[in-house]
Amino acid sequence: MELYSHVHRTLDEKGRLVLPPAFKDQILAEVSEAKIVLTLHKGKIIGITPEQWTVAVNELRKIKNPGPAALQERNGFFSHYAEVPVSKQGRIAIPSPLRTSTSLGENVVVLGLGDRFEIWPASQFEVFQTPVDASEEFEANGVELPF
């Protein structure tokens, strides 16, 4: 998947979200059975394909004796797993435990981050918009943007 951009959305009274049309179209075209996996990653709800879930599980199992941070991240990732259908209209239901764990209210932002999407409370997204300078980290990792 190639998911980019962000949109502001409002959850309905049942905790359902309508994905952006471009996200919906890609998911329905590329994902068998039109299902995605929702779970926690770094404190945010992420949407990934079932295939990505399988790869992630295998990668996380490589950690034989996880420290506190890795254990917390892995436990949140595994314990919040939910495979949800994507309707033809692009609607998904966000399970209550995920909404509660992330303090997800009615107003959310859906961020396309390339191979996955994240669902943030709108208030956290507003804080995220503060500019930062990552040029030193980019340089240290050999990242040379073409602009």
Overview of the structural elements:
The protein is of the alpha+beta class and 147 residues long. It has a single domain, classed as Transcriptional regulator MraZ domain (Chemotaxis protein chec). The longest helix is centred in the middle third of the chain and has 12 residues.
Any guess at the CATH architecture?
A: 3-Layer(aba) Sandwich
Note the main sheet. Answer: 6 strands, antiparallel
Which fold name is given in CATH as the topology? Chemotaxis protein chec
Task: Compute the separation of the termini in Å.
Answer: 25 Å
Order the strands across the largest sheet as they lie in space.
Answer: 1-7-8-4-3-5
Percent range of helical residues: 25-40%
Report the C-alpha radius of gyration, rounded.
Answer: 16 Å
Question: How many discrete structural domains?
Answer: 1
Which superfamily, in CATH terms, is the homologous superfamily?
A: Transcriptional regulator MraZ domain
Secondary-structure content class = alpha+beta
Count of β-strands: 8
Given the structure, what is the number of helices?
6
Layout of SSEs?
Blueprint: E1 3-10, E2 16-18, H1 21-30, E3 35-41, E4 44-48, H2 50-60, H3 68-79, E5 82-85, E6 91-93, H4 96-101, E7 107-114, E8 117-121, H5 122-128, H6 135-140
Task: Provide a quick synopsis of the model.
35% of the residues lie in helices and 29% in strands.
